[in-house]
TrEMBL record:
<dbReference type="InterPro" id="IPR010976">
    <property type="entry name" value="B-phosphoglucomutase_hydrolase"/>
</dbReference>
<dbReference type="InterPro" id="IPR006439">
    <property type="entry name" value="HAD-SF_hydro_IA"/>
</dbReference>
<dbReference type="InterPro" id="IPR036412">
    <property type="entry name" value="HAD-like_sf"/>
</dbReference>
<keyword id="KW-0119">Carbohydrate metabolism</keyword>
<keyword id="KW-0378">Hydrolase</keyword>
<dbReference type="Pfam" id="PF00702">
    <property type="entry name" value="Hydrolase"/>
</dbReference>
<dbReference type="InterPro" id="IPR051600">
    <property type="entry name" value="Beta-PGM-like"/>
</dbReference>
<dbReference type="InterPro" id="IPR023214">
    <property type="entry name" value="HAD_sf"/>
</dbReference>
<keyword id="KW-0479">Metal-binding</keyword>
<dbReference type="GO" id="GO:0016787">
    <property type="term" value="F:hydrolase activity"/>
</dbReference>
<keyword id="KW-0460">Magnesium</keyword>
<keyword id="KW-0597">Phosphoprotein</keyword>
<dbReference type="GO" id="GO:0008801">
    <property type="term" value="F:beta-phosphoglucomutase activity"/>
</dbReference>
<keyword id="KW-0413">Isomerase</keyword>
<comment type="similarity">
    <text>Belongs to the HAD-like hydrolase superfamily. CbbY/CbbZ/Gph/YieH family.</text>
</comment>
<dbReference type="InterPro" id="IPR023198">
    <property type="entry name" value="PGP-like_dom2"/>
</dbReference>
<protein>
    <recommendedName>
        <fullName>Beta-phosphoglucomutase</fullName>
        <ecNumber>5.4.2.6</ecNumber>
    </recommendedName>
</protein>
């Protein structure tokens, strides 16, 4: 292991955004809950079973592209909606409509509440770069660039593969490994020489199926065992635990 807590062969580090670099997981979970609860209440009346911002979030939506999150959670309740179009209004009873309702709520929260970064992660990325490793941010979020700008972290990454780039290149999102593989490719290396840093179970699955050299689970939600079960080589509460501090 190196001073960065990584195997010697690792040449590049691929970081998830929400929940690893920024404290936006709770903001996403709250926006999903408000969206799904309003949807379910409209459909099933006051007897509806609310979206659980911990268990439903972890199991069905965390880390997935927005339409996949809508589809997967609603399927867990036996509900199937027409896909609709990306430009559907937020009250349309379609996969895209529900997703747009969630995104409107999220953007409003980001604009009013600001975005906070995990200091331990920022310091670790700086250390990684100081040791000559290359870095990428790999996020399902279509708002990745705005969020990076909001925390002044645009320059910390050599490559950005986010929801916008994934749509342009037709890359399937997590749990598929394609967005991480695209980041490795753009950094001029391959999966065996990359470490993946993720807080979502879907991200662990992507790390395992893509055969990445090292997969670090970041436990923000008390799900250490589940992160290991989904393929983490190591689980930490904060990236500062890996070392790299001068
Ligand atoms: Mg995440």
């Amino acid at each position: 292991m190196t001073q960065l807590g990584l195997p010697e062969e690792i040449l590049a580090c691929l970081f998830d955004l929400d929940g690893v670099v920024t404290k936006t997981a709770a903001v996403h979970a709250a926006a999903w809950k408000a969206t799904f609860d309003a949807f379910l209440r409209e459909r099933e009346g006051e007897q509806f079973r609310p979206f659980d911002a911990v268990t439903d979030y972890d199991e069905y939506v965390d880390g997935l592209p927005r339409p996949d999150g809508v589809r997967t959670f609603l399927a867990s309740r036996g509900i199937e909606l027409p896909e609709g179009e990306p430009g559907d209004p937020p009250d349309a009873p379609t996969v895209h409509g529900v997703g747009n309702r969630k995104n409107d709520l999220l953007l409003a929260t980001i604009r009013t509440g600001g975005v906070e970064a995990y200091e331990g992660t920022l310091r670790y990325i700086e250390a990684v770069r100081a040791h000559g490793l290359r870095t990428a941010v790999v996020s399902s979020s279509a708002n990745c660039r705005d969020v990076l700008r909001a925390i002044g972290a645009e320059d910390l990454f050599d490559v950005r593969i986010d929801g916008v780039v994934a749509a342009e290149r037709h890359l399937p999102g997590k749990p598929h490994p394609d967005t991480f593989l695209a980041a490795a490719h753009d950094l001029g290396t391959d999966a065996a020489h990359c470490a993946v840093f993720e807080d979502a179970l879907a991200g662990m699955d992507a790390g395992r199926s893509g055969r990445f050299g090292y997969v670090v689970g970041v436990d923000r939600a008390g799900q250490r065992d589940a992160l290991y079960a989904h393929g983490a080589h190591r689980v930490v509460d904060d990236l500062a635990e890996l070392g790299g501090q001068a």
